[in-house]
Specification:
The protein has 269 residues and is α/β, with parallel strands linked by helices. The chain has a single domain, classed as Phosphoenolpyruvate-binding domains (TIM Barrel). The protein has eleven helices and eight strands. The chain has an eight-stranded parallel beta sheet. β4, α6 and β5 form a beta-alpha-beta unit. The longest helix has 18 residues.
Length: 269
């Protein structure tokens, strides 16, 4: 799917809704429900491969997962690469190009607890390596100011705006501020970082989608919430099964034939 299509999805007026997938099957299912693009949850993807979240997933497994997802879907794909799994900007750039080579059109990369300088170097290296390879991509720069509570109130808004300016100069295409839930702060940040689209993460106290649109939000991610809910459901059903309760597994499940048909349609010819 064209990178231009993915860029256009960030121009509104309604926010781009991304119910994050964690493997090829969930990506295909989410696409079938009407998603205009697929983005991965790094946590869910790592867990599905038996690794903890937090830059632990081996690069080859991430690239293989991206390839599997790209094979199954026809909408644009963005892969969360956490902090790039390395502090070496060149290594991060090689990973990003590898992901583009298997069919993704975007990445999400975070600053975490590190200095913004490091993320700037990574973004610059990714942009340069992609250009040398004749590739374009959407770089969504995630700042963890709110998620890690690095600042509060007006200081947090100012810090996010300042980091956004630096990441834009380095070559990012969008800004992700997970943990942000205050509408007034969203509006201030969205206005200050234009033309970068503001991406926020779903939270229990998040304003309505209509309000988010008014605040200037252009992208909403589920993060790991759906993956966590799925694991919670699995935990409850498996515990019940082990205790001899088998009936709870039936009634709300997707039909076997429907799932098989869904994935058969995504298989290569």
């Amino acid at each position: 799917m064209s990178i231009s299509v993915f860029r256009k999805l960030h121009t509104g007026p309604a926010p781009l809704m991304l119910p994050n997938a964690w493997d090829a099957g969930t990506a295909r299912l989410i696409e079938s429900l009407g998603a205009k693009a697929i983005a991965t949850t790094s946590a869910g993807l790592a867990w599905s491969h038996g690794y903890p979240d937090g830059n632990a997933l081996p690069n080859d497994q991430l690239i293989a997962a991206a390839r599997d997802i790209a094979r199954c879907i026809r909408v644009p794909l963005s892969i969360d690469i956490e902090a790039g799994y390395s502090d070496d900007a060149r290594a991060v750039a090689r990973l990003a190009v590898g992901i583009l080579d298997v069919g993704a059109v975007g990445i999400n990369i975070e600053d975490g607890a590190n200095s913004p300088d490091l993320l700037c170097r990574k973004i610059e290296a990714i942009r340069e390596s992609a250009a040398r390879s004749g590739l374009d991509l959407f770089i969504n720069a995630r700042t963890d100011v709110y998620l890690r509570r690095l600042a509060s109130k007006d200081a947090a808004v100012d810090e996010v705006i300042g980091r956004a300016a630096r990441y834009r100069t380095a070559g990012c295409d969008g800004l992700f501020a997970p943990g942000l839930s205050d509408g007034g702060a969203m509006a201030r940040i969205a206005a200050a970082i234009k033309p970068l689209p503001l991406n926020i993460m779903a939270l229990p106290d998040l304003p309505s989608i209509e309000s988010l649109q008014q605040f200037g939000v252009r992208r909403v991610s589920a993060g790991s919430a759906i993956a966590q809910a799925a694991l919670g459901c699995t935990s409850r059903l498996a515990a019940g099964f082990l205790a001899g309760i088998t009936s709870e597994m039936f009634g709300a499940e997707l039909a076997y034939g429907a799932v098989n048909e869904l994935l058969a349609k995504s298989a290569p010819d």
